[in-house]
Amino acid sequence: MAKSRVLVVGGTGYIGKRIINASLAEGHPTYVLRRSEIGLDIDKLQILLSFKQKGARLVDGSFFDHRSLVDAVKQVDVVICTMSGVHFRSHNLLMQLKLVEAIKEAGNIKRFLPSEFGVDPAQMERALEPGRVTFDEKMTVRKAIEAANIPYTYISANCFGGYFAGNLCQMRTLLPPKDKVYIYGDGNVKAIYMDEDDVATYTIKSIDDPSTLNKTLYLRPPENILTQMQLVEKWEKLTGKMLEKISISAEDFLSKIKGADFVEQVALGHFYHIFYEGCLTNFEIGENGAEASELYPEVRYTRIQEYLKRYL
Ligand code: GNU
């Protein structure tokens, strides 16, 4: 069967770039939306032109021109949206709802992957304010997809290594601490850390797979299911240097939410659910779910001790 044609929306972004590369590597005719809103963002444009040089097709469109989105969608079989939601000024929700409308009108899409790639928002009905906005928005997009009967796969990719492993789960930094590391509680809550390239590989594997149709695909490669303490120990082993460990109780952590600004409050909420409540690993995958490393055992995913070497 011919390889499905893939359109990536958000192709210049952190995970979007990796998904384009994985799509090209897997032999899919790969299309990338070039939004006219890019304007003078020379970085984004040059990234798009480099993908054209690697064999991707650029499709011009605008989120202010519904017809252009419909025309773009009509050229492909699968649409993957990777537009980030953590940068609140991005109007991510409105843009994704416009994309859903275009996919609904085009009528030809065999699989749509909305911009998920993190915590499963369906598990987060009791999430703390204001961080819950991240999950509520994703659920709004899901409801629009399902109301339009658009075939979908939701990717719950858990923790990007770049946001959570490299910094040993510390906030407000992307680099490992040099002398002391803050530990959430006693650091024994399990989280799941992913090499971002593996997130892209698993995502592309899932788009033509009947067993992920209208399912959530959870990325839980067993060797990357680690407590914060295990992560810190891997880093100490790599550097040969012990870190001073300072434990923060759940109460003290939560009390920080009060005085913080909005963006900080959102992040604190996310970290609380991940590292105190264990929201990534405190539930079993049900019949509406599948686990990527079991479905695709041929993927030799990067273990975290390998991933951490770039920070040495
Ligand atoms: C956390 C962040 C890291 C923010 C998810 C401020 C949604 C998810 C694991 O909001 O994108 O220090 O799944 O000081 O579904 C933010 C996002 C990252 C936190 C990462 C998040 C994870 C949101 C910070 C910080 C590293």
Automatic annotation (TrEMBL):
GO terms for biological process: lignan biosynthetic process. Pfam families: NmrA. It comes from the Eukaryota. Keywords: NADP, Oxidoreductase. Residues 3-308 form the NmrA-like domain. GO terms for molecular function: pinoresinol reductase activity. Belongs to the NmrA-type oxidoreductase family. Isoflavone reductase subfamily. This is NmrA-like domain-containing protein. It comes from Fraxinus pennsylvanica.
